[in-house]
Amino acid sequence: MSQRRRWPARLLRQAWSGLVAMGTVYLAGETSRPHTPDAPIAGPPAGHPERLCPNVPLTRLERTLLRELGER
After folding, report:
1. Is residue 20 within 8 Å of 26, Cβ to Cβ?
2. Best label site of 29, 38, 47, 63, fewest CB within 10 Å?
3. Residue among 49, 46, 50 at smallest CA distance from 66
4. What is the pLDDT along the chain (72 residues), one digit of tens a residue?
5. Cβ of 14: how many Cβ atoms within 10 Å?
6. Which residues lie closer than 8 Å to 45 by C-beta, 6 or more apart?
7. CA pseudo-torsion sign 39, 45, 49, 52
8. Which alpha helices (H) appear in 1-72, and where do they start and end?
9. Dihedral Cα 22, 26, 28, 31, nearest 10 deg
């Protein structure tokens, strides 16, 4: 095979390797946490914006989503 035909395959292979590496770095924090479907949802961590305003009532959409998640 000539050099002209090989470079697209080589370029695609290198691009794919780069995307896999980027995805690995991006998902590293998500994959390190154990996921158990039976575990209750803990909510946002301390200092998260959703925890800073406990006196603000939930919107209708938020209440619906909360109900669908089985929290209340």
Report:
1. no
2. 38
3. 50
4. 566 778 888 999 999 999 999 888 887 766 555 555 555 556 666 666 666 676 778 889 888 888 888 865
5. 10
6. 51
7. positive
8. 3-32, 49-52, 60-69
9. -120
